[in-house]
Design brief:
By secondary structure, the chain is mostly helical. It has 2 domains: 3-103, no CATH class; 115-151, no CATH class. It has 6 helices and no strands. It has helices spanning 3-13, 38-58, 63-67, 95-103, 115-123, 135-151. The protein is elongated, with a radius of gyration of 22 Å.
């Protein structure tokens, strides 16, 4: 095996953290490691508990579903149109992300925006001032701004 192929093979088995998506060097022995550190593992479990509480309160899930669910340990899904990150385990996507994707649907929103909001979109460069009265352009600007905030993982200030 030449050096390049060896590096590719080594990179193919390096695990990716289920929470932060960064690669990590797994510990030796024990059960398969799915998180790069305990902080990511704790964040994953905390988010899972919050999601389950939201799902129960919104009617997406019932307490009986949780109570009567499988008693064995959860395993990762296999397949999903790509090769496994962990050949002996399965697909490295999280159950939480899969559940969110399964319950999410595209939607069209009718969101009111004030004249000052439109002016601020122009001032910040999200909306071309020439298109200030074009509702489709304003909607695109709001969508672009929202997607940028999501990609940066911005959270509301409390």
């Amino acid at each position: 095996m030449d050096g390049g192929a060896g590096l590719i093979a080594a990179a193919a088995v390096k695990p990716i953290c289920l929470w932060c998506d960064s690669g990590f060097e797994p510990r030796k022995g024990g059960s398969p490691q799915r998180f790069c550190n305990s902080k990511c593992r704790d964040a994953f479990h905390s988010a899972g508990r919050r999601w389950a509480e939201m799902a129960v309160s919104s009617g997406l899930l019932t307490a009986a579903d949780l109570r009567n669910g499988p008693a064995e340990a959860c395993t990762l899904f296999t397949g999903r149109g790509r090769s496994s990150d962990y050949p002996d385990i399965g697909y490295a996507g999280t159950a939480l992300r899969d559940a969110r994707r399964a319950s999410a649907r595209d939607m069209v929103l009718g969101v009111p925006i004030t004249a000052n909001g439109l002016i601020e979109l122009c001032r910040l460069g999200w909306l071309d001032a020439v298109k200030l009265r074009n509702s489709e352009a304003a909607a695109d600007a709001v969508a672009d701004l929202t997607n940028a905030a999501i990609s940066m993982r911005l959270r509301p200030s409390m």
